[in-house]
Predict the structure.
Amino acid sequence: MTVDSDAETPAIKLLCDLIRCPSVTPVEAGVLDRVEAFLTQCGFTCTRVVFDGDGSYAVDNLFATVGTRGRHILFGGHTDVVPEGNREHWTHGPFSAEILDGTIWGRGAVDMKSGVAAFCAAAAHHIQSNPEQDGIISLAITNDEEADSINGTKKLMEWAKEQGHRFDFAIVGEPSSAHILGDNIKIGRRGTISGIVHVKGKQGHSAYPYRAKNPVPVLARLATILSETKLDDGSKHFEASNLEVTSIDVENKATNVIPAEGRLNFNIRFNDHWDGDKIRNWIEQRLVEVTTEGVEVSWRQIAAVAQCFISPVSKDINIVRNAVEKISGQNPELATFGGTSDARFIANYCPVVECGLVGKTMHEVDERVEIEQVNKLTRIYFETLKNFF
Ligand SMILES: [Zn+2]
């Protein structure tokens, strides 16, 4: 294979093509067309599936597969990107894919068009090198990971199951490394739930408090109880679950008026001790603790619960681990830190790990990636495929 700094590898050429498509969620902007053209040329059967409804916009998705029997590996990723922000603040155009001193500039360079380009190129190279080998390689690529995530990977996985696809193992190409390529691969993610508590009292004059019901002390007590009640002590693979109160609003401008109502927003990141029902119960118990006569306390959940998942250490995880070590020289930590990703939807179908770049400039102005890193990541995926089949 080519040296890591080579800008002419299939992965780098594809990456530049993808960055030049301004595919801000959910606009496809030709990005999936490029992936499809690349994969079709390499022998993949590609299917474009558009999902819509469930309170969200329509999303273009791509499922590609090659091979008919043997072990089945799935690569997952997304081609949509977050908005570029103020273009004036970028050193090079956010959709220019300009290459300077071995670095490619542009929105999605890290998160995660390079992951997509790397696994496409690795799969293509594997097929060319082993045309007679048994085994199935599939790719599930969505254009909606950064926003609603309603008509993306979740539905694409349901669709793939209906088509009869059964996967043995999956790799999501999201940036998973912390400081150096390969220092971490993620074998699980915490779950998350957000909610708003509404506290309704009775408005009145602050000089006559017995005629009113002040919701503010209830909100204050609730903030303390929610923040200080321990959820758990952590588990084998996860740190302790945590609740953060993110806002308290009363919107009362007068100092001599007791407000009628107020609200409190919170977000919980929870580990594998919990699921949606259990965590909702826990929240309700906390509300009971602050219930006061004449004050109504209720809450509603914002968006769906993202479930926590963990993929047990296995032969396949060790194959990824060894590939990372061989190419990057790093012995990766099997980590579970960070936010949620689409891996949570794939976890319902097979064990899944996230293995990708360092997430340094993702979502920032001047997002960029070193060519060397993308070529190394491609080699990690190629090495994994070699040992998987
Ligand atoms: Zn991403």
